[in-house]
Write a structure and sequence with these properties.
Elements lengths: L1 E2 L4 E2 L6 E2 L3 E3 L4 H13 L4 E3 L15 E3 L7 E5 L4 E5 L4 H10 L2 E2 L11 H7 L15 E7 L5 E5 L4 H7 L8 E8 L1 E2 L2 E10 H14 L2 E6 L5 E10 L8 H25 L4 H8 L6 E5 L1 H5 L7 E9 H17 L8 E6 L14 E9 L5 H13 L3 E2 L9 H7 L3 H11 L8 H7 L2
Helix pairs in contact: 9-10, 11-13
Length: 435
């Protein structure tokens, strides 16, 4: 199904592109024919999801592949503990469908608007001591390559492609189906608690080791953090009350926060005072529910973001340096800084590939100048060997990335084999992978 060419814009609104044509294939074979036709016309091909990447990883002036007809559950294999779904399935739809079947992913990020292929292809992750990113939960995938071939990939079939394509940046082909590991649905008990900055940093390793999932937010211009610990629970379920959940998640985290960010954009000098008030507005709370209702939360305030993955042992020192930089600067930052963790994994270009990892993410309200803040933070992150999140803003290029990813050459060699003519190329991939 081909649509007239219209401008495509990502969620944050910082990337706009106008493809020559927009196509929604209904199968891998259909997609193969579309790719072949695009190559004959000298056009590149890029799949898009819901546009939640802040980079131009999906931008194209060629053929844009829309995912809506490559969606839905194909198979649930309870004996194997897997679910196979179309790559255009939104994570929200997947989570709800799994819950209805009494199943769940082991871990997930904090939003679920992305398609499963968009999330995994850019390295979306949550936080976890033992359970890793969304890509690391993939058991198999279906990939359509530049010559129109449909490849089934797993650790037993096309294993060298599988190792890379679980987080492939759209550079190796178009993922059309994904098989995830799943397990019987379980309960998570969440404990959210305000905590002083120095205490969180001093106790960080302890919190990571004692909890299955630990994360925290630091509010710039303050000494205040909010921590969250998620652990499996025998129950009973104790969900957030309708009113309490609305106050915390809708009013304070979305409605009031939107107003705060707008006020800060209009009057930057007011931000430190607002931060001190808002950082004290969230109180301690506990609740127990099924995983996606604990891991994820609504995010309706639009922003842009940069995130770096650091060796876990370096992260707290790097965060202290970020705080010191903000404290001595004239910057005014209305968004909290988010810190999460991940165990080492074996995915070629995963930000946690081969090392225990901590993530430091910085945000700015959409429409607010961000370059000075992001540049200063990036300087600190790269000094600690940081790896930028593939779907979030950064300025790194292939020369830098080849130095921080031991298996970088393995990925680019595979790309040369699968897509020598760069049918799936664009400006972002030329920068981060070379050409």
């Amino acid at each position: 199904m081909t649509a007239p060419s219209t401008a495509w814009r990502n969620w944050a609104g910082n990337v706009t592109t106008r493809p020559a044509r927009s196509v929604a294939p209904s199968s891998a074979e259909d997609l193969g024919r579309i790719i072949a036709a695009a190559a004959e016309d000298g056009l590149t091909v890029k799949p898009v999801g819901t546009g939640h990447s802040f980079t131009a990883v999906a931008a194209t002036d060629g053929v844009l592949i829309r995912p809506e007809r490559l969606a839905g559950i194909r198979e649930i294999d309870r004996a194997a503990g897997t679910v196979t779904i179309g790559s255009g399935t939104p994570l929200k739809q997947l989570n709800e469908a799994l819950a209805a079947e009494g199943l769940s992913l082991a871990n997930m990020g904090d939003i679920m608007e992305q398609t499963v292929a968009g999330a995994t292809s850019t390295g979306t992750h949550g936080t976890g001591r033992d359970s890793a990113s969304t890509s690391a939960q993939i058991k198999a995938l279906e990939l359509v390559t530049a010559d129109g071939s449909v490849l089934q990939c797993s650790d037993k079939e096309n294993s060298e492609i599988f190792a890379a394509a679980r987080l492939g940046l759209g550079a190796l082909g178009v993922v059309t189906a994904i098989t995830f590991a799943v397990e019987p649905v379980f309960l998570l008990s969440a404990r959210e608690e305000p905590m002083a900055f120095d205490r969180v940093l001093a106790e960080f390793d302890q919190h990571v080791m004692e909890n299955e999932h630990f994360e925290f937010y630091w509010f710039p211009h303050t000494e205040n953090c909010n921590t969250k610990r998620n652990n499996r629970s025998a129950g009973p379920a104790a969900p957030l009350g309708r009113i309490g959940g609305w106050v915390e998640d809708e009013l304070l985290s979305n409605g009031v926060f939107q107003a705060v960010c707008s006020a800060g954009r209009a009057v930057p000098a007011a931000i430190p005072g607002i931060a001190k008030i808002s950082s004290r507005a969230l109180s301690a709370r506990t609740y127990t529910d099924i995983p996606y209702k604990v891991f994820t939360s609504p995010r309706r305030v639009r922003f842009i973001e940069m995130e770096y993955a650091l060796p876990r042992t370096a992260a707290m020192e790097a965060l202290r340096e970020v705080k010191a930089m903000v404290d001595r600067s004239s910057l005014r930052i209305s968004f909290p800084v988010e810190v999460r963790t991940a165990p080492a994994d074996d995915i070629t270009l995963s930000t946690a590939s081969g090392r225990e990892t901590a993530y430091i993410a910085v945000h700015m309200y959409r429409g607010t100048p961000h370059q000075a803040y992001f540049t200063a933070v990036e300087r600190i992150m790269t000094a600690h060997g940081g790896r930028p999140h593939w779907g979030k803003l950064h300025t790194r290029d292939a020369a830098y990335l080849a130095d921080v990813y031991p298996r970088f050459g393995e990925f680019t060699a595979l790309r040369d084999r699968l897509d020598p003519e760069r049918v799936f190329g664009n400006a972002y991939l030329r920068r981060v992978l070379g050409d």
